[in-house]
Structures are given as C-alpha cells and as structure tokens.
Specification:
- There is one protein chain.
- By secondary structure, the protein is of the alpha/beta class.
- The chain has 2 domains: 213 residues, Alpha-beta prism (UDP-n-acetylglucosamine1-carboxyvinyl-transferase, Chain); 198 residues, UDP-n-acetylglucosamine1-carboxyvinyl-transferase, Chain, CATH 3.65.10.10.
- It contains 14 helices and 24 strands.
- The strands form 6 sheets. Strands 18, 19, 20, 21 and 22 form a 5-stranded mixed beta sheet that branches.
- α1 runs parallel beside α2, α1 packs parallel to α8 and α9 runs parallel beside α11.
- The protein is globular, with a radius of gyration of 21 Å.
- Bound molecules: shikimate-3-phosphate (S3P).
C-alpha cells in the first residue's frame, strides 16, 4: 500500500509539461515509415511510447534515443523487415490499434500481443474495416482481441463511415491507406483528435478535411522525414489544472501545453465552471498549437458534459469527475460509454474510487452523475493498474481530510514518469537527496 497525504497545501509555481503521448507515438511511426532523417524533441519517454520505439527497432529501423530527444533514420517502407520475435504492445491501446493498420500493409508476417489489460480491449473496431481493405488478420475469439497474427498484403482503397468515435480507429485506417491502391476517405461521427492528419500533412501527404468530419488522404505520396517538436500533453497537464482549480490558495503556470482544439475540452469545461484560467504565448509548430496556461483556485459551479465535447476530453474524464465533486450543483457526464473500454472500465473505477473518498457520485450506462460540493475524506483505493486513475487519486488526496491509500502507483510511468516530482515541486515539497 502507498500512502498519499498532502495536508491541503496549495499548488504554486511553474512546470514544463512533458511530451504528448498521442503525438509521440505518431512521430515514431511516421518517421520510421518516411524517407530521410527525423529529429524529435520533447518526446514522451513513458512506457507506452517506448513500446512503439521498440517495435520499429525490431523491424530494423535505426532509432537513437536520449531522454526526450529521438533521431530516426528513415529509409522508407522498404527498409522495414519481418521481426524475428512477436511484437509486444504492453498496455498501449494507441500502439496496438495504429500498428495493426501499418502491419496490415507491410509485406511480411507478424504476431502481436499485449498485457492483460490490453488483451481485454476490443480490437474488432480496427480489424473489421481493415479486413474490408483486404487485410489478413487472424487470432482466437474470431480475431477480435490480442494476440493476433497479421500477414501483410496489398490493400484496397476504402471509404468508411466510423461507427465509433475513435481517433485510434481513424488513424489506423489512414495509416493502412498509405499502402492502398487509391485514396482513403474516413467519415467520423464527431471530430476526434487529428494528430495523424496534421503529421501526415506536415510530412508531405495531402489530406483534405470537409466539414471537420470527412477526411480524404490522397494516395501515391512518399512520407518525408521531418523535425518534430512534440507539444506538452494536455492530458498530463489536466491533473495539475484540476489540482489548482480545487485547492484553495493555488496559482500555477503550465508551460508548453498542446492546445490542438480537438483536445481542449477540459479548458472549455473549466471556463464554463467559472475557473480562473489564462492562456498565453500561443504559437504553432508542425500543424499543432502550443501555449502556456495559468490557473488559480476559484469557486466552481456544475456543468453538463456530453455530445461532441466527449472526444475532446475523453482521457480527462476521470479527473473531471474529481473536479465536479468540488463544483456547486449536479454535473452530468453522458455519451461517454467509451470509458468502459479504456485501460480499465473507467466509469466503474472512478465511481468506486471517489465514492470511497466520500463523493456523492452515481455511475450510469454512459457516464457519471456527481453532486458537489463535498469534502473528500481519506480511504483505501486501487489504481486498477490504470495510470489516469492513479493520478486522479493522487490529486484527490491533496484535498482529502485524511490519508488516502492506494495499492499501486507504478502504472503512472505509462504516461507521466515525472508526475510525482512535478507534484512535489508544485506543493513545495523538498526531495531529500
Ligand atoms: C488516442 C485516442 C483516444 C484516447 C487514447 C489515445 C490516440 O482513444 O483515449 O488515450 O492517440 O489516438 P480512442 O481513439 O480509442 O477514443
């Protein structure tokens, strides 16, 4: 058991947010498929993104990594070789879904597997449309879950209407489209994160977007290596934005945060709740917006969160539920059934954790209903081996009246290895050497 107790101290000061997980994965994938060298800066060296690097190394790509700097010697898709061993995706849904798209088109055989959480997550959402393109993917349970075997082959161009709001599925199909015999068109139910489209465009592949939801990629273009500056991850910044918004006396500044508008749903929610928030130094890099965010404690009021806002804050919903426990009134989160198929069932995990800490919270089929404002207490919790549940619990413990215990914190390294040192810095806790 790990003990979390922070004495209700305010958060003060400034931190630089580490690289975005989604963009870090895509930078390695696209640079490995490209021709020419790519230098990636502010790469997130969390466990998930390291899996993606290891996978391309196993397929013969020369990748040098030193902390957050990565150099990839791209020689085009023809340099990639059949891996001698099965490829391990670990806990990473993004690696799994996007790699299935790439492996479906590469001219060799691969077997792929993941950890126990990833093995329970649905892969059919990617496999079904990939098979429509002609992919050969096989496995147990009608080839809907890992482990899987893929025999890469020539793929057919496709127009596809996505039945789920998922950037991972959209990205997998665009990446498979790089190997197809014509243009690829994907229609979304609501706009989801568009980092794949932005990076493909920046590397020389024409992408057209109509009405924000209909994406067409023109075939026959070679990816060109590029220097990529990864913006800070707004999904990591989210924990400190919420911590400062709910802890009296707090005032912090988060530097270098990605502000792509398909990801900034939390900022919209904070503003609607009445948070004291300022955004400055906004600039663009490689098709992505970046800026600094200043936030101070302020009284908050409840809001409703659903519809097309959900994909713009899907990963932030656990910590948004915590935020809602400190907002006056009833916050309803709906249209968020995708939470059930994340690293764990996050509706259940958030409900169990926050109710243990004394919140007035109720799970629904597609979300959560939270009545605030409640004083949180101590309690005994689990991480469910889910990095975002563990970090949400750590933030809850700042305002809890007593000690919070949690079974495991090692999963935090999946997306934010520096989380506890950043938290200690903002809380003014000196680390002994
Ligand atoms: C991601 C997309 C989202 C998100 C995940 C990362 C990505 O998943 O929850 O953490 O990098 O494309 P879905 O697209 O499955 O909703």
């Amino acid at each position: 058991m790990n003990k979390l107790y922070y004495d209700n101290s305010p958060l003060l000061g400034k931190i630089r947010i580490p690289g975005d997980k989604s963009i870090s994965h895509r930078s390695v994938m696209l640079a490995s498929l490209a021709e020419g060298e790519s230098h990636i800066t502010n790469f997130l060296s969390g466990e998930d993104c390291m899996r993606t690097i290891e996978i391309f190394r196993a397929m013969g790509v020369k990748i040098e990594q030193s902390g957050s700097n990565v150099t990839i010697e791209g020689k085009g898709v023809h340099q990639l070789a059949e891996p001698a061993v099965p490829l391990y995706f670990g806990n990473s849904g993004t690696t799994a879904r996007l790699m299935l798209g790439i492996l479906a088109g590469l001219p060799f055989f691969t077997t792929v597997y993941g950890d126990s959480s990833l093995t329970r997550r649905p892969m059919n959402r990617v496999i079904h449309p990939l098979k429509k393109m002609g992919a050969s993917i096989d496995g147990a349970k009608q080839a809907s879950y890992l482990p899987l075997a893929i025999r890469g082959r020539d793929l057919q161009a496709m127009t596809y209407e996505l039945p789920v709001r998922s950037a991972q599925v959209k990205s997998a199909l665009l990446l498979a489209g790089l190997f197809a015999n014509g243009d690829t068109t994907i229609m979304e139910m609501a706009p989801t994160r568009n980092h794949t489209e932005n990076m493909l465009r920046a590397m020389g592949v024409p992408i057209e977007v109509q009405d924000e939801k209909c994406i067409t990629m023109t075939s026959g273009h070679t990816l060109r290596g590029k220097d990529i500056e990864v913006p800070g991850d707004i999904s990591s910044a989210a924990f400190f934005l919420v911590a400062a918004a709910i802890t009296p006396g707090s005032h912090i500044e988060l530097i270098n945060v990605g502000l792509n508008e398909t990801r900034t749903g939390l900022l919209q929610v904070l503003q609607e709740m009445g948070a004291d928030l300022k955004i400055s130094n906004v600039h663009a890099s490689g098709g992505e917006m970046i800026g600094d965010i200043e936030i101070s404690y302020h009284e908050l009021k409840a809001v409703d969160i659903g519809g097309s806002l959900i994909p713009k804050l899907i990963d932030e919903l656990p910590v948004i539920a915590l935020l809602a426990t400190q907002a006056e009134g009833v916050t309803t989160i709906y249209d968020a059934e995708e939470l059930k198929v994340k690293e764990t069932d996050r509706i259940k995990a958030v409900y169990e954790t926050l109710s243990e800490l004394g919140a007035d919270i109720r799970p629904t089929d597609d979300g959560l209903i939270i009545r605030g404002k409640t004083t949180l207490q101590g309690g005994s919790t689990k991480s469910y081996h889910d990095h975002r549940i563990a970090m949400m619990t750590a933030i809850a413990s700042i305002i809890a009246s007593d000690e919070v215990q949690i079974d495991d914190l090692s999963c935090v390294a999946i997306s934010y290895p520096e989380f506890f040192s950043h938290l200690d810095k903002l809380l003014g806790i000196q680390l002994s050497e």
